[in-house]
Amino acid sequence: MKITRVEAIPFAIPYRKPLRFASGEVHTAEHVLVRVHTDDGIVGVAEAPPRPFTYGETQAGIVAVLETVFAPQVVGLSLLERETVHARLSRTVGNPAAKSALDMAIWDALGQSLDVSVTELLGGYTDRMKVSHMLGFDEPAAMVAEAERIRDSYGITTFKVKVGRRPVSLDTAVVRALRERFGTEVDLYVDGNRGWTAAESARAMQEMADLDLLFAEELCPADDVLGRRWLVSRLDIPFIADESAVTPADVTREILAGSATAISIKTARTGFTRSQRTHHLADGLGLEVVMGNQIDGQVGSLCTVAFGASYELTSRRPGELSNFLDMTDDLLAEPLRIADGELVIRPGAGLGAELDPGKLRHYRQDR
Ligand code: MUC
Ligand code: MG
């Protein structure tokens, strides 16, 4: 069960249509596939999605930090020494996606070695999650049509609507159009990716007061410290901290400061080891949790559902597991399928992320 080698493979897969939101947009999934090899011939996998507009990481930077800093810190360790892995990776600041992919590939290898699924290793609560779909910026009619297509094709009835444009009426019109089209048939929440000021956020939430929203997420920056507290104190729905609360310490600070009342857990930035710590913290604090999406491909989405299904708290709300539907292709031999609004974990050991070698050859950028 000893780690012998870590590979960091850059790959690129285009999107069918770009996903646009207040802090950026994504046209091509330029991710990094991480493979952890062991002395028993087992290979664990995970993927790292660089999000420079959120965490400052780039694809080339993720490959470099994995090859030059993190791989030498874990080669030679047993797969069971997960706390040592965490302590060693934590010596380097930042680089959340690089650290997380390495951490999750180690858990995948451990699951395969022990012949149990990662979900069973973590908590084993259930084998599936309900899915929530993210709607990127567009005109109201196009976003309603997209929601109809997603509902009809996959049975998804929870939508996270990207907001944060100016004037705020651009976005409030979309949410109103969705509620008018679907009535009580769908659940809706909004994510501003820090695009509005606190005052704009308050005005937008007032305009949407009759639209029965589940949550509001990162409407304004957490760095607008007093404005954000003021906003959160006025709301009568949970306010989710996403990119402002990456580590358990960030979560503690944001919650104790009154700058958020719920959190998003994203395995792409906290792996399984740190996501466990964040889950336990949220459990202790009594927080609502949503399993978020860092615009993951299918390997990343498999990681999210594997973690989310592990605990009662993380599987209570629909998880954001469907961004891969916007990609033209992916790396898994057997593509993920969302049906009746649910995504089921893969049966068998580890993550069950068997790759298609031909697709990897085609999309990798290092050969
Ligand atoms: C989300 O929930 O914000 C978009 C930007 C990012 O950092 O993550 C995605 C989704
Ligand atoms: Mg968000």
Automatic annotation (TrEMBL):
Q: Which UniProt keywords apply?
A: Isomerase, Metal-binding
Q: A Pfam family for this UniProt protein? A: MR_MLE_N
Residues forming the Mandelate racemase/muconate lactonizing enzyme C-terminal domain are 140-238
Give the family, as the similarity comment puts it. Belongs to the mandelate racemase/muconate lactonizing enzyme family.
What is the protein name given in its UniProt record?
Mandelate racemase/muconate lactonizing enzyme family protein
Q: Which SUPFAM superfamilies match?
A: Enolase C-terminal domain-like (SSF51604), Enolase N-terminal domain-like (SSF54826)
- This protein's source sits in the domain of life called Bacteria
